[in-house]
Amino acid sequence: MSTPLRIGVAGLxxxxxxxxxxxxxxxxxxAARCGRPVTLAAVAEPNRxxxxxxxxxxxxxxxxxxxxxxxxxxxxxxxxxxxxxxxxKLCQAALARGKHVVTANKAxxxxxxxxxxxxxxxxxxxxxxEAAVGGGIPIIKALREGMVGNGFARVYGIxxxxxxYILTTMRETGREFADVLREAQELGYAEADPSFDVxxxxxxxxxxxxxxxxxxxxxxxQAVHVEGIRQISAEDIQFADELGYRIKLxxxxxxxxxxxxxxxxxxxxxxxxxxxxxxxxxxxVVAEGDFVDxxxxxxxxxxxxxTASAVVGDIGDIARGLRVPTFGVAAGSLARLPTRPMSEHTxxxxxxxxxxxxxxxxxxxxxxxxxxxxxxxSVLQRGRDPGExxxxxxxxxxxxxxxxxxxxxxxxxSPAVVEPPHMIRIEEF
Amino acid sequence: MSTPLRIGVAGLxxxxxxxxxxxxxxxxxxAARCGRPVTLAAVAEPNRxxxxxxxxxxxxxxxxxxxxxxxxxxxxxxxxxxxxxxxxKLCQAALARGKHVVTANKAxxxxxxxxxxxxxxxxxxxxxxEAAVGGGIPIIKALREGMVGNGFARVYGIxxxxxxYILTTMRETGREFADVLREAQELGYAEADPSFDVxxxxxxxxxxxxxxxxxxxxxxxQAVHVEGIRQISAEDIQFADELGYRIKLxxxxxxxxxxxxxxxxxxxxxxxxxxxxxxxxxxxVVAEGDFVDxxxxxxxxxxxxxTASAVVGDIGDIARGLRVPTFGVAAGSLARLPTRPMSEHTxxxxxxxxxxxxxxxxxxxxxxxxxxxxxxxSVLQRGRDPGExxxxxxxxxxxxxxxxxxxxxxxxxSPAVVEPPHMIRIEEF
Lengths: 429, 429
Fold this sequence. Notes:
Two copies of one chain form a homodimer.
Chain A: E1 5-10, H1 14-25, H2 27-34, E2 38-44, E3 60-62, E4 75-78, H3 85-96, E5 100-103, H4 106-123, E6 127-128, H5 139-146, E7 152-158, H6 161-173, H7 177-187, H8 195-198, H9 201-215, E8 225-226, H10 234-243, E9 245-256, E10 259-270, E11 282-289, E12 293-300, H11 304-319, E13 346-356, H12 361-371, E14 376-381, E15 389-400, H13 401-413, E16 422-426
Parallel strand pairs in A: 1-2, 1-4, 2-3, 4-5, 5-6, 8-10, 10-16
Antiparallel strand pairs in A: 7-9, 7-11, 9-10, 11-12, 13-15, 13-16, 14-15
Helix pairs in contact in A: 1-11, 3-4, 4-9, 6-7, 12-13
């Protein structure tokens, strides 16, 4: 087992740079643990100025990533990014040539995971993607191996550090979303185009992957219901606090009798729930197994070094000869499970209304709820200002989403309701 | 790969019963994930009344655990318990016969881990022990594999659910230790002889194992400094709350320039630290890697089903042909690292004194601290009662344990100090 494992890293951006650093700086440690040298043999990066700042002597530098396919590396590490394009082409070609593939690319796995898993299995090589979900947290390994004996009913988590940073900062400072987003962009915690993060798409990519591993089904990104955090106001966060909740953007995948439910949206979570204390750029994944019960995994969800840790975890498995099916079961056995539509989701709700403070308004609202069998748990009016708009906050007992939606449409149509209702789902753990 | 893996379970107590249940109830799931049947072939249990309540047709029942060594099982699962005796003899004999061994026995691994790892390596078989630390949490796998690229400076955790339950209940109810312990015994959360749990021995077993995996060193249980929670009073918990802390029994292993520090004792932890919110019977392990940064793993630390999940995780690895050195590196390469003695520990401290409320007392205390270069951060006297004993609480800035101990001895000798000082270390994360 003393043959070196030869690694080729494609893409020297943040994660690529971190991966190269780790492979060079911790080479002795890695060799001792893996029982063989793990050697950075090649990198592929068109921009020659992207030097990771470590000794690259003996490392072949290609400008074209596809050159790795024909090189003598054993493992191609795809850190280019993007849900298709060169990243997809590189992974397909590398697998076809019998090379192991490691990637941190959640968009790629969310869109092409099933197809790539089949290609890897057909070629008898490994496709690993630990860094695609939860940054440095070894959550794929925990689900696929550590909890291999468990059936999973639900897996959920805080999967996007940018959103969690924004929501945490909004709560701590009382500031509004747009203001905090701008600051996050200045600090480098959010992209210039923040849409993938704040509109929930990144979380949805990761959730679709988690669902596949937990439930043994094909990755079904299209089935994810996605909402982001742009609608969350400082007032909502304040009300949540008063009601005993924190607001978190969660991805939640549940296996129900009616099919798989995959949803990404802001959630009210009990302040005392352990996930509520996961703040700032940290991510957390909770897996509920039928034997292990509730387990939670917390760590940095992004960044050069944590993500490199996950990439090298995947490489270490290959060096040690550990092979596990991409999504936990043979690719040919991945189930096609029906999707439970969001309209059938059941849960509790928080609703914030802006209404004109006058007699009879509350009767209209209560009537709309009654007409759709939605049962109120609490109602809270902030201040009194006759004839002027005031905020009214309600929490509703567990109900079906379709009924809630219909009741809200009726409420919105009431002349005393001066803004579209703001609804946030309450998540029970 | 469709040859079944044949499992023999020794000991049908709580964990053995859960393991048998899992293997039978989730057999199809396990076979799909492992690519081969995982078959419960035999059990060994002298008490024929211990039936796990599942269909045991076709399962050979031995009364003598040693009979598994000569049977046709591929894996011997040792769930008998105890740091030596039959458990040790069984594991030694099974490894010598070329059978894989899975155990949940922390005392055994803490005392004989290095020797057993060498035996496993010599025989070319696997020794797995995920269930020995953190119950259902796959923490050994996370350290040994998921974070394989990281050097670790510190690993610590809440490793005993009984202690965490007692401390949580004391805080929630304001009751004293002895009272809550008695209730925990009635509820089955604590043993009739609670010493292993409340005196920190169980935590120390687990910590010694974690340190070995994190630092690549021989298991050194004797080097662990161990204190339990019997001295914690309701008053300490109340003061901790006022100072912004929670009291947790932690096991902390640090790799320092002066050697490895392994210590088990009650700690004051910042209420806002994620580990502070891990309550009741839950366990948590925090690993700090040089690339991944801080990661935390939370789950049930004991119980039939969570522990069975970890045992079957180990079995699943064997079924899939995954082999990792017992403590992360080849047994022959495990380092013998020097121990940093507790006297060289540096940290902040909380001290509660019972002193006679009269002029000059505080000058004596302050003088003793000054004489040993201990610097005070805050002091708090509860109430005034001239001439009578009152509680005084101090927090001390980071100092060396030997100086703190010397200062406390001098303080205790003061005639106005009517009880031995209560010292609790403050842990910084």
